[in-house]
Inverse folding.
């Protein structure tokens, strides 16, 4: 039997192959599409560049692996390789869509991996428990971050929602940071109050109604989620946060009635917002009937409709790397020909549609299964964890990843209204990549403690 | 806490299963309908690199062709401007495609080529080459129809009753397909409240008014319940479905024959005939004429409307309890019909009771000039006995010779026709007017329907002269 760390090392082989194979395919395809012309890539050049990209990526993964090997020897061996597979699918797809963005994405990955290593090294000695000391600071930062995009000067409205902040040339989605911060706060808060929430509650009509004193802060969280929703006008982010909150409430108390009450409250709030905030209302209309001529042509459901059309071309096995139709030539009034994108923002919001188009139902389902495995390892970590805070933290972090995938993929496939969150590790977006690496680092820290033999635990 | 965590995982698995289910839905199960959706421009973009075949008129006049625009791409050009906009449609990457361009897409883009040819092309790395679509459209007559429609909202459809070939399909107001290339003028055309992109010949439902009496007369005579000499009271204010029905100008007539009643278009007579025939009989004849379903024209089904009794957008069976059969028999009630359908009514009577499948395509010719497909005339249904057709023809001749349709007379050619006037909600001065006809009556070569929307007068004054001009032009060839 291989040691966990050696299994992890072997687990990195698929993503190395994926990156090298993916880049090679793209180069060969680029060569086919415009023989010898605009791109000065020859097959020889192609293979060396793709090998270089693969080698660089593999080198980064190896570095991260070494950090885990020395700092967290007992950590789950599958978490990191799964993340590496997702990241390699992401970098290949982003490269295929826009090479310039892929280079930026690679730079963000380096930043992400540095923070990843930093988090691991900082928390390795005392575990995630130290975070509890700063829980109110962390909560304040987390909630504060979500409203930053609304501030004039640094915030900006995109498609009706406020999601990004801009500092100089760097743009940042604070929701990605809040995601981690809020889960840490909730895990810590619920660890302290879970017993009281259950035992001091009164039963009404078969449902346990929690005591006001302890439930108050929970209502504040609900209020915060609603306020976030109203301020940023973004249903997806609040659904993601609130979903994580309800999941943690359920894990902490074991009472199904709590998340049920919470869900009803959220539904009421969302219903109100959908009816009163034009931009959210438009998203709901598009969700109900994405192929309605009027909605499509006015632009309301254009993005979603194009997403469905792109997926329809994918079929079971997809059209192949670099085969997807993304841009088309348009002649301007001055006879200049420009290339327009048929699928809006293919590199971030719509990347799943491009994946379905090029890798088909099979490839997309495979990708979702990788996420499912990642969440499974995360929740397994939660089960193995020995203290309540670690359990809650690992469940929350895993579930928030699952929610994020559900919200964006569900939006792109018309399961729920389309919103602007990123597909973790895959979609282009600096803050998303960086914060998701930090999130995985936290999971690995919890996992290392959880899987450490008892003797070592007490001895240390 | 472990049990909730395991359940949480169950929830996640369930949510992901939902995602895979929806991905399957779009990428596999509903993929084909998404690919054929008119809003989907992806196929068009892929096909930008295909040298699409031309669409030509019966005399070889080019109606649509592809011109190279560099980088191996092609763009559609419409040398006839707006003349054939509604019939031929358009094909632009930014907009999708409509009309014949859409219906014949497979052949025009070369996908319809024989399998062997496709395989050979693929082996040689050749791109598919589009085939030519030869239509039965007549450019001279189309010009006449368009000129007559200028300034009006309306449509003209002319068929060869013997074969079902569509020779004229004009709709006004129209547009020049070439101007859709610029997004600004495309937006202006789309946004025009007069509905310039709508093909009024196939898509727009109007109350047929008295032209529908041709159908009622056919049913009356073909069932043997009446002859054209049968007499019915033509007095004013006969109660129909309990409500008194008025004749034009409240004229009250005594016992008159059906021929006289058609010639003068007497409402009360035909409403009584329709009541006596009953809903089931009229429904049977409507079905035979092609009502209550989409026409069989080689044209995209969602750009055609079914003619018949309407409840909102929906076609309801003429046997529904809400149908007032007497008023339906004179083209009122909730009837909404297309000019194409009314041209088919005239054509069926003219062709001795046999309705031919209407079609615009005559043949498909491959890039090397070989005819790969020929659209042969086909009987759609036998609507009535030849003797019935002869009797109804005689009645329609009387309409043109001495009745409401005298303005459609052509010296030396016997025209058989019927006028129609449907009052609008605006009042009885603004009407939707109709004229349907075929000629020469003894051996028809042309069947036509003309409708004009919102004109201040009767069908005879406005629609009949338009029909006459187009018939003259078509018979001249």
């Amino acid at each position: 039997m291989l040691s966990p760390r050696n299994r992890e090392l072997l687990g990195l082989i698929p993503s190395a192959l994926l990156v090298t194979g993916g880049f090679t395919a793209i180069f060969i395809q680029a060569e086919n599409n415009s023989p010898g012309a605009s791109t000065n890539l020859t097959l020889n050049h192609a293979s060396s560049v793709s090998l270089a990209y693969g080698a660089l990526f593999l080198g980064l993964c190896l570095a991260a692996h070494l950090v885990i090997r020395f700092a967290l020897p007992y950590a789950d061996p599958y978490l990191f390789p799964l993340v590496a597979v997702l990241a390699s699918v992401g970098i290949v797809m982003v490269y295929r869509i826009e090479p310039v963005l892929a280079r930026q994405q690679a730079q963000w990955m380096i930043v992400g991996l540095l923070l990843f290593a930093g988090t691991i090294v900082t928390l390795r000695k005392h575990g995630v428990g130290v975070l509890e000391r700063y829980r109110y600071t962390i909560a304040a930062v987390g909630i504060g971050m979500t409203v930053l995009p609304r501030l004039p000067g640094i915030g900006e409205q995109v498609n009706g929602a406020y999601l990004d902040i801009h500092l100089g040339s760097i743009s940042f989605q604070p929701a990605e940071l809040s995601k981690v911060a809020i889960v840490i706060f909730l895990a810590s808060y619920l660890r302290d109050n879970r017993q009281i929430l259950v035992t001091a509650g009164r039963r009404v009509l078969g449902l346990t109604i929690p005591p006001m004193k302890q439930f108050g802060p929970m209502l504040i969280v609900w209020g915060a989620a609603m306020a976030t929703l109203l301020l940023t006008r973004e249903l997806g982010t609040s659904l993601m946060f609130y979903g994580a909150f309800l999941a943690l409430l359920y894990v902490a108390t074991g009472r199904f009635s709590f998340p049920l009450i919470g869900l009803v409250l959220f539904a009421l709030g969302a219903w109100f917002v959908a009816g009163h905030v034009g931009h959210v209302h438009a998203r709901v209309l598009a969700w109900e009937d994405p192929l309605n001529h009027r909605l499509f042509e006015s632009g309301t459901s254009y993005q979603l409709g194009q997403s469905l059309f792109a997926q329809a071309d994918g079929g079971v096995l997809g059209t192949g790397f670099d085969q997807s139709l993304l841009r088309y030539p348009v002649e301007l009034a001055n006879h200049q020909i420009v290339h327009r994108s048929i699928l809006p923002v293919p590199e971030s919001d719509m990347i799943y549609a491009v994946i379905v188009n090029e890798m088909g139902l099979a490839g997309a389902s495979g990708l979702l299964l990788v996420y499912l495995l990642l969440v499974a390892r995360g929740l397994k970590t939660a089960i193995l964890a020995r203290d309540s805070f670690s359990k809650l933290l690992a469940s929350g972090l895993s579930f928030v990843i699952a929610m994020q995938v559900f919200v964006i993929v569900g939006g792109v496939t018309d399961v729920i209204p389309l919103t602007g969150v990123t597909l973790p590790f895959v979609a282009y977006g600096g803050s998303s990549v960086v914060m998701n690496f930090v999130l995985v680092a936290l999971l690995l820290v919890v996992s290392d403690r959880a899987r450490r033999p008892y003797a070592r635990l007490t001895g240390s | 806490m472990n049990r909730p965590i395991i359940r949480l995982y169950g929830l996640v698995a369930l949510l992901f299963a939902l995602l895979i289910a929806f991905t399957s839905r779009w990428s596999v199960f509903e993929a084909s309908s998404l690919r054929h959706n008119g809003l989907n421009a992806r196929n068009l973009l892929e096909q930008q690199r295909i040298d699409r075949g031309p669409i030509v008129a019966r005399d070889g006049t080019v109606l649509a062709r592809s011109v190279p625009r560099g980088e191996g791409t092609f763009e559609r050009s419409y040398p006839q401007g707006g003349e054939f906009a509604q019939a031929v449609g358009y094909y632009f990457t930014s907009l999708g495609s409509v009309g014949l361009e859409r219906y014949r897409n497979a052949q025009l883009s070369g996908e319809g080529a024989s399998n062997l040819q496709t395989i050979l092309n693929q082996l040689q790395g050749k791109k598919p080459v589009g085939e030519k679509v030869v239509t039965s459209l007549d450019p001279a007559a189309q010009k006449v129809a368009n000129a007559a429609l200028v300034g009006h909202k309306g449509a003209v459809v002319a068929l060869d009753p013997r074969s079902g070939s569509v020779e004229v399909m004009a709709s006004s107001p129209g547009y020049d397909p070439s101007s859709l290339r610029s997004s600004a003028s495309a937006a202006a055309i789309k946004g025009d409240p007069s509905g310039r992109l709508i093909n009024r010949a196939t898509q727009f439902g109007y109350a047929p008014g008295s032209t529908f009496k041709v159908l009622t007369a056919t049913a009356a005579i073909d069932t043997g319940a009446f002859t054209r000499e049968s007499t019915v009271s033509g007095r004013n204010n006969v109660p129909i479905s309990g409500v008194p029905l008025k004749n034009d100008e409240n004229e009250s007539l005594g016992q008159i024959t059906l021929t006289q009643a058609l010639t003068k278009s007497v409402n009360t007579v035909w409403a009584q005939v329709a009541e006596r025939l009953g809903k089931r009989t009229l429904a049977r004849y409507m079905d035979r004429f092609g009502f209550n379903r989409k026409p069989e024209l080689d044209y995209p089904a969602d750009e055609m409307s079914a003619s018949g009794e309407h409840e909102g957008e929906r076609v309801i069976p003429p046997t529904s309890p809400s149908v007032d059969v007497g008023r339906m028999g004179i083209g009122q009630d909730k009837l909404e019909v297309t000019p194409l359908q009314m041209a088919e009514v005239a054509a069926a009577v003219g062709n001795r009771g046999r309705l031919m499948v209407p079609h615009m395509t005559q043949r498909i010719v491959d890039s090397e000039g070989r005819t790969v497909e020929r659209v042969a005339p086909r009987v759609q249904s036998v609507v009535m006995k030849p003797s019935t057709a002869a009797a109804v023809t005689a009645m329609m001749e009387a309409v043109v010779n001495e009745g409401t349709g005298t303005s459609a007379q052509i010296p030396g050619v016997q025209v058989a026709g019927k006028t129609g006037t449907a009052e609008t909600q605006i009042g009885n001065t603004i009407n939707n007017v109709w004229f349907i006809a075929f000629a020469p009556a003894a051996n028809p070569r042309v069947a036509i329907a003309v409708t004009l929307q919102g004109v201040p007068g009767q069908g005879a004054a406005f629609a009949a002269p338009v029909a006459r001009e187009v018939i003259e032009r078509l018979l001249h060839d």
